[in-house]
């Protein structure tokens, strides 16, 4: 059995966990909205057409913020098509995903749904086909109390109170050639700063996210960030990062190492932000919004067969397996380790489309990746202790030394509890892990949740929804102030320690 040590100190704090790192994403794409969160006539639908079964799972996940309405969709988004009487709303050819968008579900319906789900909205404005004027109009519609054209229009539509949306994205992935209205860094930087300026004149209480690169592999990565920040540094609050990983090579050790790439991506973007800060002699710090992250590859072949211009087709419906859940767990650990700079993160996406929750006409169920997200979102609140891991490592692909163990510790002072999140990436051996916690006198192990499976490719389906599900029989104990745990081979572990009174 391999051995590893986790080292921490209660006075070495990485930062507070901003709860918004447990955000998610609903795009007008595939069956995320239609048949996902909204399906009038379905036996589970409420009077507004919202699916109660989906809502219950979203609430279980405890998602504090949901990004909307895209994604690539936002670059052709006409928000005014989506408000007012539903029977008067135009259907449009949606160019990002080659489908027909009926606009039956729109901005106000999403605001209603968000209230029910207990999440804030992270709204995106269209900087692909549109610009400053459209951004200030939609902001006026959403946030202005009344007495102006767009705020009064909202009232006519039945919404007397403003939606008060505090977080806004300035477009989506504008560096990507696939984007409608794709821009150079100079063009986007200029447009982002002008838009940000106008939006903050209208509502200075909002926070703005500018687009970073679509992923760290873009040719323009680095230069894009520096140029955009050169223009927009003082007008924006966050820079975005996106990443999706795959196991196309069917190489599990290498796949499970990919959160190291995410770690490096974050550190690099932090460096660029701070370089521009230095260059501008600015007092302001730009933080990060990792507003799209996940595993995405299982559905790519099936998506090539979709009939163009259909309505709400089965698009991007990845069926996640057990090893995907392990990588998602490791990615969550990486995000937590960077909580001093990553303040927002959105698991992309939430329902049906590369999602932890799936629905059909007959039910809703939890995919494998639901569980690590659930555990982190519900048990990883408070602050992050700087957590060092001393573990043997392996080499895989471009990664020379991948520790077999990923771990991070969060502390919830109010509830006098600690949570250790840990992934054992070893496919062959269990691991003995120890952590000196003598600074936490009286703390005892309260729970040790484990997610594992003999079959790395095991999946949950509607017919067999619990094939991959956590159990609470993890092996760990406190001995002389030291946590001693055995982490099973290829497992996600959540150890909760509580002060015993
Ligand atoms: O989440 C799916 C798509 O991935 C989003 O629409 C886009 O922003 C990204 O490329």
Automatic annotation (TrEMBL):
<dbReference type="InterPro" id="IPR017853">
    <property type="entry name" value="GH"/>
</dbReference>
<comment type="similarity">
    <text>Belongs to the glycosyl hydrolase 51 family.</text>
</comment>
<dbReference type="InterPro" id="IPR013780">
    <property type="entry name" value="Glyco_hydro_b"/>
</dbReference>
<feature type="domain" description="Alpha-L-arabinofuranosidase C-terminal">
    <location>
        <begin position="291"/>
        <end position="491"/>
    </location>
</feature>
<keyword id="KW-0378">Hydrolase</keyword>
<dbReference type="Pfam" id="PF22848">
    <property type="entry name" value="ASD1_dom"/>
</dbReference>
<keyword id="KW-0119">Carbohydrate metabolism</keyword>
<protein>
    <recommendedName>
        <fullName>non-reducing end alpha-L-arabinofuranosidase</fullName>
        <ecNumber>3.2.1.55</ecNumber>
    </recommendedName>
</protein>
<dbReference type="InterPro" id="IPR055235">
    <property type="entry name" value="ASD1_cat"/>
</dbReference>
<dbReference type="GO" id="GO:0046373">
    <property type="term" value="P:L-arabinose metabolic process"/>
</dbReference>
<comment type="subunit">
    <text>Homohexamer; trimer of dimers.</text>
</comment>
<dbReference type="GO" id="GO:0046556">
    <property type="term" value="F:alpha-L-arabinofuranosidase activity"/>
</dbReference>
<keyword id="KW-0326">Glycosidase</keyword>
<dbReference type="GO" id="GO:0000272">
    <property type="term" value="P:polysaccharide catabolic process"/>
</dbReference>
<dbReference type="Pfam" id="PF06964">
    <property type="entry name" value="Alpha-L-AF_C"/>
</dbReference>
<dbReference type="InterPro" id="IPR010720">
    <property type="entry name" value="Alpha-L-AF_C"/>
</dbReference>
<comment type="pathway">
    <text>Glycan metabolism.</text>
</comment>
